[in-house]
Specification:
Blueprint: E1 4-9, H1 13-23, E2 29-35, H2 38-48, E3 52-55, H3 64-74, E4 79-84, H4 89-98, E5 102-105, H5 110-121, E6 126-127, H6 129-139, H7 152-162, H8 167-174, H9 178-192, H10 197-206
Parallel strand pairs: 1-2, 1-3, 3-4, 4-5, 5-6
Length: 212
C-alpha cells in the first residue's frame, strides 16, 4: 500500500512530535518532513513534495494565507490542511481564500484528523463545524425558503439521516468521509433554516424534498 506523504508545520516542538507520533500509527500515513516556521516550511515542502501539508496558521514569517499561497505556488500538487486553535474571521477567511483545502481545530479527535488528511489528499474539502458555519454565514446570501435547493448529494445525506443513520453510517454508504457528511449537513441546515437533524428531516418532508 502506498503511503500518503505528509509534512507537519508548527512552531511548537511538542506539537510536531505529538502529530508525528500520532500520524505514524497509521500504516497509510507517513510524515516525511516537518518545519517550525513559514520559511522552513517552504524549503521542506519544495524538497519533499508531500501529498498533504498539515500546518498551523500563526507562525514565524510567512504565515497564514501568505504561507498557504506560497506553498501552493511552489508545489501546486500538494494539499494544505490547516490545523490550528484559531477559528476567527481573520484566520479562516484568508486561509480559505489562499487555497487551503481544509481547516480543522486542534481539539479534533485523532480519528477525525486521520479522515481529514485522507480526504484532503483526495481533494475533498474538510472543515471543522464552527469553521463551516462561519463561512456559510459570510459567503452565502440569505435566500427565501422557496429559492433554497438541495443538491443531489445533500438529498442523499438527508434521506439517510431520515432513516436514522449516523454520520459514520451515512459516510460508509456514500463512500465519503464523515467530515464531508457533517459539512453537507451544515449546508442542509443553512438552506432549510434549521439547526439540527430532526428539524431538517421535518422541514424536508413538509416541503416535499423527501418521499414518505
Amino acid at each position: 500500500m502506498t503511503s500518503l506523504r505528509l509534512v507537519v508545520v508548527d512552531d511548537h516542538p511538542v506539537v510536531r512530535d505529538g502529530l508525528r507520533g500520532m500520524l505514524g500509527t497509521q500504516p497509510d500515513l507517513e510524515v516525511v518532513g516537518e518545519a517550525a516556521s513559514g520559511t522552513e516550511a517552504l524549503t521542506v515542502v519544495a524538497a519533499a513534495r508531500p501529498d498533504v501539508v498539515l500546518t498551523d496558521l500563526r507562525l514565524p514569517d510567512p504565515s497564514g494565507g501568505a504561507l498557504i499561497r506560497s506553498l501552493l505556488e511552489r508545489v501546486p500538487t500538494t494539499r494544505v490542511l490547516v490545523l490550528t486553535t484559531h477559528d476567527t474571521d481573520s484566520d479562516v477567511l484568508p486561509a480559505v481564500e489562499a487555497g487551503a483545502i481544509g481547516y480543522l481545530l486542534k481539539d479534533a479527535p485523532r480519528e477525525e484528523l486521520f479522515r481529514a488528511v485522507r480526504a484532503a489528499a483526495r481533494g475533498e474539502t474538510v472543515l471543522a463545524p464552527s469553521v463551516a458555519a462561519l463561512l456559510l454565514a459570510r459567503v452565502r446570501p440569505r435566500r427565501p425558503l422557496s429559492e433554497a435547493r438541495l443538491s443531489a448529494r445533500e438529498r442523499e445525506v438527508l434521506a439517510l439521516v431520515a432513516e436514522g443513520r449516523t454520520n459514520r453510517e451515512a459516510a460508509a454508504r456514500l463512500y465519503i468521509s464523515e467530515a464531508t457528511v457533517k459539512t453537507h449537513l451544515l449546508h442542509i441546515y443553512a438552506k432549510l433554516e434549521v439547526t439540527d437533524r430532526a428539524s431538517a428531516v421535518a422541514a424536508a418532508y413538509r416541503r416535499g424534498l423527501l418521499d414518505g
